[in-house]
Amino acid sequence: MKIAYIRNSRLKQENSVYTQKQLIHDFCNTNHITLDKIIIDEGISGSGDKTNKREGYLWVIEQIENGNVDILIVISISRWGRNLGEIYKSVELMDKHNTKFYSLKENIQTDSIYGRFTINLLSSLYEMELGLISERVSDTLKVKKENGKVYSKTPYGYDRDGKDLIENQKEKRLLRKMVSLKNKGFSYRDISKYLLRNRHKNKSGGKWTRENVYSVLKTYLNNEKITLQFC
Question: Is pTM, for the whole model, over 0.90?
């Protein structure tokens, strides 16, 4: 199928459905393309959180996944979507299923050299966006950690007081005992058996396992900047 997709956010938007139809028909006439369907999402935002409400968009994606779309035409990339990750993934999907994507405003045709360049550019921008998000999250966690704020699940040795972490002295003593056992040559499994024999519970109230001991000790040693004397 050869499909045109049209969307506008407001019913009285300047770039109306009628205008988009006319521009697409002009393009098709010039390039000898006969459309099979025009899919319209009218009065719906293109933002990522509104995607599930865009029935036309979801139908087109499904048809692409099924290998039923030869050509997809839109007026501009912004009419197709506004989330960079979503746009890139959809264009990648089209590439996988041999769907040619034409965006008239940006003069993008994915079967051309410039079109391939655009896909690569979208990929690079998407990777950069993911990297920036990851960096922001990392910076936020670092600041919270340095200021004694809760930045993940409450670590063993601490209790949560709102957004603050306060030391749990009983758990801290047990952590120091675990470090002492490890320094004496106990394996993580040996330490878990010791904890079970002495009826100690983990943070969630369950039984200690080798994996629990390893994870808790690793976090504790990193936070306290302690180095094991013997491994």
Answer: no
